[in-house]
Amino acid sequence: MEIHASIPALRTALKGRSRIVFVPTMGNLHAGHITLMREARQHGDTVVASIFVNRLQFGPNEDFDKYPRTFAADCAQLEAAGVDVLFAPTETDLYPEPQQYQVDPPGIQNQLEGEFRPGHFRGVATVVLKLFNIVQPQIALFGKKDYQQLMILRNMTRQLALPIEIVGSDTVRADDGLALSSRNGYLTPDERQEAPRLSRVLAGIREAAAAGERDFAKLERAAVAELNAHGWRSDYVAIRRQSDLQTPEPGDRELVVLAASRLGTPRLIDNLEFQLPA
Ligand code: PAF
């Protein structure tokens, strides 16, 4: 695997390469990321990953400095997963001057995750557009675990006519249903036992909707009540339509239920797509 930190070096390395598939990350990789890398291989000829902890997407109360940096272990995993080129810029490489031009996603950036992480999606969209311009991939992969991020980036790519196909990759789960996340490492053994409740609650909503329940507000309230009764502190459980994460209108069938809730220290997020019958 070639590793490049500077933008010119990366551009030289990628010159003439065919069908570039790109998987951006912030490092601290787990099995979910590695599944993305292996999936990337099936979509093109050159798999490019990036590792960059993007200061722009961290809020003032989110600890950018404490974000785990595990570069050597990450490189070993990427190499084993068959990644061809790793772009690992320093902050000076990527932001040599203050990033004054930024991407301002529409109102959805202030809802759901955005309500609790103001400015987060502006930082994500800005760095991803910049990374797209540097790597110039034909395809880019993102995990569905960060569903709102995937939706915002998909819509940004379409509205700005970027010649990139965005592929959403299914969430990788532990055997008990818990979505893989680097935050799971902060759970105590007891909390780890409790943690799969989040995915069970989401599956319960999908089943209730399939059985005909259409009072979504009631389902959301019941889900929050169940989590909180078991020691969670929930930010939201929300049923939305997949395309733009707005509240479903009658006739909308492609839905997703998204949740964020704190169990002990870590704040876990998860979601589940589902389809209402015609
Ligand atoms: O999902 C992430 O790890 C980050 O938000 C991303 C897409 C790499 C942008 O910094």
Describe the structure.
- The active site is at 33 (proton donor).
- Pfam families: Pantoate_ligase.
- With 278 residues, the chain is an alpha/beta fold.
- It folds into two domains: 2-169, 3-Layer(aba) Sandwich (Rossmann fold); 184-273, Pantoate--beta-alanine Ligase, Chain: A,domain 2, CATH 3.30.1300.10.
- 36% of the residues lie in helices and 21% in strands.
- The termini are far apart.
- The model has no long low-confidence stretch (mean pLDDT 97).
- Pantoate (PAF) is lined by residues 24-26, 54, 57, 124, 127-128, 146, 149.
- Residues 24-26, 54, 57, 124, 127-128, 146, 149 line the site of pantoate (PAF).
Explain briefly what this protein structure is.
The protein has 2 domains: 2-169, Rossmann fold, CATH 3.40.50.620; 184-273, Pantoate-beta-alanine ligase, C-terminal domain (Pantoate--beta-alanine Ligase, Chain: A,domain 2). It has 10 helices and 9 strands. The chain has helices at 7-14, 31-41, 71-80, 91-94, 113-116, 120-135, 147-159, 189-194, 197-210, 216-229, and strands spanning 2-4, 20-25, 46-51, 85-87, 139-143, 165-169, 232-241, 254-263, 267-275.
